[in-house]
């Protein structure tokens, strides 16, 4: 083994790994840092909500918490949106932010993956600049023959979308001002 490869291997081993939960949307693999994922479960029954974006499938009771359920394939326009309920066996990843918890529907069981931080490259600027609100791509991870798009869960939704999903917070804030 040449010295440069040995040095690369040594750097690879001493580097702090990044823990991801990897899942498939459409034909691509996506990852979210494990610390942002609260749990993964079979998708519970979803109740449709009026006046929400089309990619918000509704709300569900997840272990006593009512959370919004989001279809990222629809949000990212990886397949056409429709009003049909999600069918078949799906899984929900509950993602926890500071002010809210959301559920993301995935079609396959998400898998944990540990990768070196250096394998995550910054997303190309042309992707990030397409829409000012779409800064949810943390980077692109390259592993052998795999490309994993690493998402920043905290930036998946715009502030306006978050407010739509938190009716209790807005109504209680209005009540406090009175």
Within the largest sheet, what's the order of strands?
A: 8-1-2-11-10-9
The major beta sheet can be summarized as: 6 strands, mixed
Number of strands: 11
Shape: globular
What is the CATH third-level topology name?
A: OB fold (Dihydrolipoamide Acetyltransferase, E2P)
CATH class: Mainly Beta
Order of helices and strands: HEEEEEHEEEEHEEHH
- Please, what is the oligomeric state? single chain
Unreliable segments (pLDDT under 50, ≥5 consecutive)?
167-178
| Number of structurally distinct domains | 1
Helix content: 10-25%
Contiguous helical run count: 5
What is the CATH architecture term?
Beta Barrel
Name of the CATH superfamily = CheA-289, Domain 4
Distance between the termini: 73 Å
Into which percentage range does the β-strand content fall? 35-45%
Structural class: alpha+beta
Mean pLDDT: 78
What would you report as the Rg, rounded to the nearest angstrom?
A: 19 Å
Description of the structure:
This is Chemotaxis protein CheW. It comes from Hymenobacter gummosus. One of its GO terms (cellular component) is cytosol. Residues 17-162 form the CheW-like domain. With 178 residues, the chain is an alpha+beta fold. It has a single domain (3-177), classed as OB fold (Dihydrolipoamide Acetyltransferase, E2P) (Beta Barrel), CATH 2.40.50. The protein contains 5 helices and 11 strands, in the order H-E-E-E-E-E-H-E-E-E-E-H-E-E-H-H. The strands form 2 sheets. It has a 6-stranded mixed β-sheet with strand order 8-1-2-11-10-9, with no helix packed on it. The chain has a 5-stranded mixed β-sheet with strand order 3-6-7-5-4, with no helix packed on it. The chain starts with a helix and ends with a helix.
């Amino acid at each position: 083994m040449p010295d440069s490869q040995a040095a690369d291997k040594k750097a690879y081993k001493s580097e702090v790994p990044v823990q991801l939960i990897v899942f498939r949307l459409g034909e691509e693999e996506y990852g979210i840092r494990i610390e942002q994922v609260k749990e993964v479960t079979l998708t519970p029954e979803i109740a449709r909500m009026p006046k929400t974006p089309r990619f918000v499938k509704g709300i569900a009771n997840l272990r006593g918490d009512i959370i919004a359920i989001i279809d990222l394939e629809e949000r990212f326009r990886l397949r056409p949106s429709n009003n049909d309920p999600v069918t078949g066996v799906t899984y929900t990843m509950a993602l926890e932010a500071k002010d809210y918890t959301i559920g993301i529907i995935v079609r396959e069981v998400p898998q944990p993956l540990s990768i070196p931080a250096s394998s995550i490259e910054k997303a190309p600027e042309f992707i990030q600049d397409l829409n000012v609100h779409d800064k949810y791509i943390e980077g692109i991870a390259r592993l052998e023959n795999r490309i994993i798009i690493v998402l920043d869960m905290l930036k998946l939704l715009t502030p306006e979308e978050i407010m739509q999903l938190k009716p209790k917070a807005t109504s209680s804030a209005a009540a406090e001002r009175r």
